[in-house]
Amino acid sequence: MRQLITAPSQVNEALKLGAQFVVIGSAITRPRNITETYIREITQ
């Protein structure tokens, strides 16, 4: 099943529900900024 993730909080929820990985498509345009935002959210 695929689910479009549009916010960092959704990554956290997906991982809690058992997702083994997530792919953040927009990371191609601003990889560092987007990666930092998502990592900060899921490690809180």
TrEMBL record:
Top-level taxon: Bacteria
UniProt pathway annotation: Amino-sugar metabolism; N-acetylneuraminate degradation; D-fructose 6-phosphate from N-acetylneuraminate: step 3/5
Catalysed reactions, as listed in the record: an N-acyl-D-glucosamine 6-phosphate = an N-acyl-D-mannosamine 6-phosphate
Keywords: Carbohydrate metabolism
InterPro entries registered for this protein in UniProt: Aldolase_TIM, NanE, RibuloseP-bd_barrel
The protein's enzyme class: isomerase
Pfam families the record matches: NanE
Entry EC no(s): 5.1.3.9
Entry-linked SUPFAM superfamilies: Ribulose-phoshate binding barrel
Family: Belongs to the NanE family.
Primary role: Converts N-acetylmannosamine-6-phosphate (ManNAc-6-P) to N-acetylglucosamine-6-phosphate (GlcNAc-6-P).
Protein name: N-acylglucosamine-6-phosphate 2-epimerase
Annotated source species: Paenibacillus mendelii
